[in-house]
Structure formats: structure tokens, C-alpha cells
Amino acid sequence: MSSAETASPSAATRVVNRWWQLVAGVVAMMAIANLQYAWTLFTTPLQSALHVSLAAVQVAFTLFVLFETWLEPVEGYLADRLGMRIVVMAGGLLAGVSWVGSGLAHSLWALYFWYSLGGIGAGAVYGAAMGNALKWFPDHRGLAAGATAGGYGIGTAFTVAPIAAMIESSGYQQAFIVWGIVQGLVTMAAGYFIVQPPKGWMPPGWAAREATHALRVTTSKLDLTPGQVIRQGSFWVLYLMMTLMAFSGLVVTAQLEPIAKFYHVDKVVVAFGMTALVLAVQLDRILNGITRPFWGWISDHIGRENTMFIAFSIQALTILALLQLIHHPVWFIVLSGLAFFSWGEIFSLFPAAVGDLYGRTWATANYGIMYTAKGVASILAGPVAALAAVQSGSWVGVFWAMVLASALDAILALVWLKPLARRTAERARQMAESVAPAAGHAVSE
């Protein structure tokens, strides 16, 4: 982080160090990660305490994802209009209260309410932190988006073991309450330091580097509003692709504990006194965090679509291997980790692509709309997948659906999205050239 990057001659107001902005966003994302990625540890205790089925418990996870994703366009709009700080701090408060309330819930409906509230809070934090990264880093959009999303993916790696131990020793209710207070306070503290760049700010030297960057990454010169974005064909291709890959990944995220239990590897002690399930969850969270900046950085150099093809192909092959080797505890750990490594990158590649193609002024709101694809996928990956497994008596059919979704996505990235993104960028370039003399304010700086 050079000192040159802390100031811009064009900035009308003081510009903070953008790398510290990235750090604050990552910390906030890490603090809310438990709501999604530690959820699987609570499913069996909740089943026992509330005397309900797995499918009924997993509705809470689906509601969390639905509220997290489907309200994000609104939260993104508020962040773009009111600023990132207030949205992140409010989201942190809701996320903390959500887990405290879940620990005090004595009915399924109360659990649904509190976990839905957590979805609203997590969505606010996620959208604002991601939007801030896209705005501060037009020159490293894949890396910045990946690092921010990586905080969400890796955050649980540091907490899953103590949470699992607390559930075992003191019950899931205390784990919800104690960790709810901790993660709420940390998120609000991180949010206090978050500010978006001044209007018109660009990184030093960006004008000279922009043309070179455009050779690697398909980039538009227009800033499209949410209303304009949803009229773009390329947007809906991206939406379909994100839904397919999110389905594949969310099955592993939400159903890992039931799957491990079904194949009798959940209680097998593998190393350091830890079971295959606990080791798998820890490895998964680490790789889920690493994958996002890694593939985001790769995409900054070889393009978003080429990176999608590689990563999605790996996911399809990984699930195929998991079908054959899941009964072995070590392979269960390794392959579930690789599954996370090859699906988590959607949270860096898709926001970066939205910023590339549709501009950064409305980047938070635009990606908020795209992020609802995760909510659609959560319905398929949560209760639908659980019901399919119960009805068929096996997870094999669900695994094959994951293989097909990943393989289809890999093909779509090259044969459909890549040429369509180029046409979108070219059309935007022509529009920018035609409107610039008369309406320069509509064109990206």
C-alpha cells in the first residue's frame, strides 16, 4: 500500500487509505460469517431440542439466505445513498441480536424470526462492504471483491472449534448468545471505520493503466442504474450462472453435517482428537476464504469468464470424486475442502463482473440484485435437497444435480457469457462516445 494510493489530486475531500478500508470490510465480513457457515453445527441440536425434522430446521437457514439476499438491492441502494458506515453498523447490530434471540427461542417459529433478522443484518454488512471494495479498487476489482468475500468465507475457521466445543459443553443456546454478542460488537466496531471514496475519485495513474487492464478484463465505460442493469441480457446470464453454482456450494455448506452423519464419518476421530466433521468444517472455512481472493486475483489477469470455466470445471470433477470416496473420512475432509475451494469464488467473480460491465456508481445496488441469486439457490440447496435425500433415502441424486449444475456453468462461461459480455461492453462504449459530449455526467469518470 503505497502512499501514492492514499491521495488523489482530483479528490475534493480527504481520501483515506483504501487498503485500510479493505481491511475494515474484511473484518466486518469475518464477524458475520458464523450466521451462515457455523449453522450446520446447530442443526442436530436444534432438531433434538425443538423435536422437529431436519427439513423443518433447514427452513431457518433458507429464510436467513432469502432475507440476506433478497433485501440486498434495497440495502445496497441505501448504502449508495446514505454511506457504507451506517449500513454496516446497523447490520452488525441486527446480526448480533439475531443469534442472541436464536439462543432464547423455544419454538420453530421463533427460530425462523430471529434467523431471518440475522439475514437482514448479514445482507446489509455484506452488500455495503462489497460495494465499498468495488468502488475503491477499479484496478484490482477481482482481488478486492475476493478479499472482502473471503472474510465471509474464512471467518468461521477461527471460531468453529470453540463454537463446537461450547455446544458440546454448555449447549447450543449459550453458544448462540455468547457468540452473538461478540460478533455484533466486532462488526459494529469495524463498520465505524468504513467510508466510501469521494465522488469522482480514481486511483493514481489509473487513466494510463485503464487501456491495458481492458485487454485482460472486459470492462464497460458506462455507469448503469439498477433499472438499466435489469434490462441487460448479460445480467440475466450472470444471474443464471450464479444461481447454478450457488446451489452446488450451498448444499455442501448447509448439509455437510447431515451428509457426514448419513455416510457415518461424522464421529470418526481423524487427528488431534478432532472428528472428520470438525476437521472438514475447519478446512472448508479456510479454503472458502482463500479461494475468493485467489480466483479474484487470477481473474484480474486472465479474465472473469476464463476463470469461471476453470473453477466451475474443478467443482464438477470434485463432486464426481466425492460420489465415489465419501465413505472414507480422509477423502471426505479433502474433497469437501476442494468443493469449497471451487465454489466460493463466485462471490468474487460475479461482483467483479457486475462492476466491470455496469460501472461503480451503483455497484452496491447492482450487485445487490445479482446477490438475490443466492437466495434462489438456497431454496434448492436447503429444504428441497433435504427432502430429496429423505424421499430417495440417499444423497446420490443431490450430488448428481450438483455435478450437472457445475459442468453446465463451466460451459456457459465460455460459449455464452464471454461473447455476450464483449458485446455489452462494446455497446456501452458506443453509448458513452455518443452521449459524452452532451451528457458527460452519465459516463464513468
- List low-confidence stretches: 1-13, 439-445
Find the structural class using helix and strand composition.
Answer: mainly alpha
| Structural shape | globular
The radius of gyration computed from the alpha-carbon positions, rounded to a whole number of angstroms, is 21 Å
User: For the residues shown, what is the average pLDDT?
Assistant: 87
Largest sheet: 2 strands, antiparallel
First-residue to last-residue Cα separation: 23 Å
The largest sheet has its strands arranged as 1-2
| Topology as a string of helices (H) and strands (E) | HHHHHHHHHHHHHEEHHHHHH
Helix tally equals 19
Helical percent range? over 70%
Strand percent estimate: under 5%
Report the strand count: 2
Report on the structure:
The chain is mainly alpha-helical and 445 residues long. It is 77% helix and 1% strand. It contains 19 helices and 2 strands. It has a two-stranded antiparallel ribbon with strand order 1-2. Strand 1 and strand 2 form a beta hairpin. Helix 8 packs antiparallel against helix 14 and helix 14 (276-302) packs parallel to helix 17. The two termini are 23 Å apart. Mean pLDDT is 87; it is low at 1-13 and 439-445.
Topology (SSEs and partners):
Layout: H1 18-32, H2 34-37, H3 40-50, H4 54-70, H5 72-82, H6 84-104, H7 108-136, H8 141-154, H9 160-170, H10 172-191, H11 206-216, H12 226-229, H13 233-262, E1 269-271, E2 274-275, H14 276-302, H15 304-325, H16 329-341, H17 346-358, H18 363-392, H19 396-435
Antiparallel strand pairs: 1-2
